[in-house]
């Protein structure tokens, strides 16, 4: 049975959030290590968004190893393609 457009869009958001959160954590580690933070307003907004995502996504789905990272990116790309986007669109 085919998934509904609503199910696809919900999955797209979930996978995007997982990817965004992981990218945020990589940047956060870099910023803490180097002390080279972005402007405070931007960083505070990113921290707020990360907190929202943490509430919606279980720990087991947040921290990704290399295999999981590839799977989540592939799923997001495939869902976006089915919804009419170009292949390999992993940006916003």
- How big a fraction of the residues is strand? under 5%
**Strands, total number:** 0
Which class of secondary structure composition applies to the elements?
Answer: mainly alpha
Unreliably modeled segments: none
Q: Shape from CA axes?
A: elongated
The helix content is over 70%
Structure description:
- The chain is elongated and about 50 Å long.
- The model has no long low-confidence stretch (mean pLDDT 91).
- The longest helix has 30 residues, at 5-34.
- The protein has helices at 5-34, 40-56, 59-62, 66-82.
- 74% of the residues lie in helices and 0% in strands.
- The protein is mainly α.
- The chain has one domain (5-82).
Give the topology:
Blueprint: H1 5-34, H2 40-56, H3 59-62, H4 66-82
